[in-house]
Amino acid sequence: MIDAEKENKIIFICWLAYAVAYVGRLNFTASIVAIISDLGIEKPEAGLVGSFFFFAYGVGQLVNGVLSKRYNSRIMVFFALVTSAVLNILMPFSGNISVMKYLWLANGAVQSILWCTLIKTISEYVSTAKMPTAIMVMSTPNTFGTFAVYGLSALFVKFFNWKYTFFTAAALLLMTAFIWFILYGNDKPAIVFDKSDETKISGRASKTAFIAVMATIAAAGIANGFIKDGINTWVPSLLYEEFKLSQSFSILLTLLLPLVATLSAGVIKKIHDKIESHSVMNLILFAVSAVMCAGIIVILRIHSIVVIMVLFMAVSAIMAMINNVITSMFPLDRRALISSGFAAGLLNTFCYVGSTISTYSLGVAAQKGGWNLVFIIMAGVSAAGLVFSLAGSLFDRRGKEKTAA
């Protein structure tokens, strides 16, 4: 018998763990304007810290995605949160960008345990009937975490120092670790998924089509990570440099991005109710993103901060929806066909390949060619994501035709 109270508890603590983890990973990005100024470094150096995190996180996602089915979720999530807290405490004390790179590399490695383990936990405890709710809830922790960390960063940069953002993140991570450990309890996974509901893949052609669909979704994930974390990392610097805003106000305005992105969880659920194919959803969203990035290039010349913020919010919301499709919807929708933990880890790895490339390369582009070049690159990456998604939609259709036959 399914324990509804346990289902709700599991969904809540999985959401909380990942939301707070975002606070403990994006605090460097949120404070990057102040850190660059305080340490007297250039954008590519600062961007490299983020790239070190994303590299370790991406590789770790691949490894942990494979191993997650053997993990004791209660212990591993607790370990990851506590270790990330310790690394967050050490960051402000280093005072050296070279040391920060390796601390953030370690933070990426331990945080890479979380997503695949949390998705595996949900797949083990949450019933098919409750799964749509779980998918929608798990599409929001990144946006809530982003909103929280940019708010904290703006507050501390304005009234205190960027270092307090790391100390606060460490405290939140420690508290969440113990909440997770207590509320998870000693229950064994319910394995509530009913295999009789499984959608069978029959025939070599259908299996090949499924693998091809997953490959194109992974490729689209690279484009998604590139744009998503490129926006999150460099919007405060753009506002600070192009519109001469204060550091704290630049960070504060960036809060609008995750705020709007939070609303996208309900939007993508409604889209998914109408469109079953994950690749078709991504195709439409990447097309809109390409248009928005092109619009940003035009608006940079007009110099309208209101219009450019609207476009930034639109791109951020679109990337949040695509990320939800790739790392949450697809693994949980297809859990009858592939381990959710493995699929989530693998696909998230590709998203963070894009993130790894993005933070450093866009920093170099901004330094050498200005912000116009940054958004020309983003528009091109959106177009590439569209092409990958188009290919995925064709493979998806072929797979359905083979299955029907």
Structural class call reads: mainly alpha
> Count the strands?
0
Gross CATH architecture: Up-down Bundle
* Rg (CA only): 20 Å
CATH topology: Growth Hormone, Chain: A
Indicate the CATH class: Mainly Alpha
The helix tally amounts to: 16
Concise description?
By secondary structure, this protein is an all-alpha fold.
Describe this structure in words.
The protein has 405 residues and is an all-alpha fold. It has one domain (4-186, 199-404): MFS general substrate transporter like domains (Growth Hormone, Chain: A, Up-down Bundle), CATH 1.20.1250. The chain is built from 16 helices and no strands. The protein starts with a helix and ends with a helix.
Task: From the structure above, extract its key features.
globular; Growth Hormone, Chain: A; 16 helices; 405 residues; mainly alpha
Per-chain topology:
Blueprint: H1 4-30, H2 32-39, H3 43-67, H4 73-94, H5 97-111, H6 114-125, H7 131-137, H8 141-159, H9 163-184, H10 204-242, H11 247-254, H12 256-274, H13 278-302, H14 305-333, H15 340-369, H16 371-404
